[in-house]
Amino acid sequence: MNKARRNPLNTAAAHLILLTYTVIALFPVFVILINSFKTRKAIFREPLALPSSETFSTVGYETVFKQGDFFLYFQNSMIVTVCSLFFILLFGAMAAFALAEYRFRGNTLMGLYLALGIMIPIRIGTVAILEMMVATGLVNTLLALILVYTAQGLPLAVFILSEFMKQVSDDLKNAGRIDGLSEYTIFFRLVLPLVRPAMATVAVFNMIPIWNDLWFPLILAPAEATKTLTLGSQVFIGQFVTDWNAVLSALSMAILPVLVLYVIFSRQLIRGITSGAVK
């Protein structure tokens, strides 16, 4: 009886904690969205109030579309993010399959070496990366950002995907080999469909840092033609005067792709997290 009484209390407490965390996480997004539709005075006078007939204004969005080349920045961010995620998932899945499937000397050591990339921030090597990009002529190109983000995301991708691929049935793969399937066919047709939740998890975990990054676009691709959305939003922030309407409007539009991606992959993301937690 006591156990039956504790379970509802534990469930209610867990839901309360999750609800509190959700409110805390979404509160800044809510504040940004409502203030992007208000006048400058209303933003500072009542930052938590909803837009009214007196305070409603779209001047921030008008400034973003007129003054800044928003569509170019958005396009650059999409190209960098999508290409980086593609290479992270492709090369990460291949490396994870090799580590999980084939036993060779140094297998464990190789896995530990790749895991070090999770613990060591890539920004430590910014100077060396910049020198390399200058030597190869890749400064002010989107390719430079794609290469850096791919290298940044591979350790986590290999770490997560290798654990999932170890759970794929050996009988299934051996049956494919008996039927004459090549290793590439087994990888792409048999293994990858079974680890889609894990790949969705890797994609979400990598997309947000790539999309929001300001460090490497500022250092490797600061030219107008290669600015990303995060870097392009900085044009509205001055040393003495900041156009907060434009800044909040740009941030509101920058949030949308992340929300859309989460809505699309939320089910796969939850399956990936729970599958990794329960063996």
TrEMBL record:
<keyword id="KW-0472">Membrane</keyword>
<keyword id="KW-0812">Transmembrane</keyword>
<feature type="transmembrane region" description="Helical">
    <location>
        <begin position="112"/>
        <end position="130"/>
    </location>
</feature>
<feature type="transmembrane region" description="Helical">
    <location>
        <begin position="12"/>
        <end position="34"/>
    </location>
</feature>
<keyword id="KW-1003">Cell membrane</keyword>
<dbReference type="Pfam" id="PF00528">
    <property type="entry name" value="BPD_transp_1"/>
</dbReference>
<feature type="transmembrane region" description="Helical">
    <location>
        <begin position="186"/>
        <end position="208"/>
    </location>
</feature>
<feature type="domain" description="ABC transmembrane type-1">
    <location>
        <begin position="74"/>
        <end position="265"/>
    </location>
</feature>
<comment type="similarity">
    <text>Belongs to the binding-protein-dependent transport system permease family.</text>
</comment>
<keyword id="KW-1133">Transmembrane helix</keyword>
<dbReference type="InterPro" id="IPR035906">
    <property type="entry name" value="MetI-like_sf"/>
</dbReference>
<dbReference type="InterPro" id="IPR000515">
    <property type="entry name" value="MetI-like"/>
</dbReference>
<feature type="transmembrane region" description="Helical">
    <location>
        <begin position="246"/>
        <end position="265"/>
    </location>
</feature>
<feature type="transmembrane region" description="Helical">
    <location>
        <begin position="78"/>
        <end position="100"/>
    </location>
</feature>
<protein>
    <submittedName>
        <fullName>Carbohydrate ABC transporter permease</fullName>
    </submittedName>
</protein>
<keyword id="KW-0813">Transport</keyword>
<feature type="transmembrane region" description="Helical">
    <location>
        <begin position="142"/>
        <end position="165"/>
    </location>
</feature>
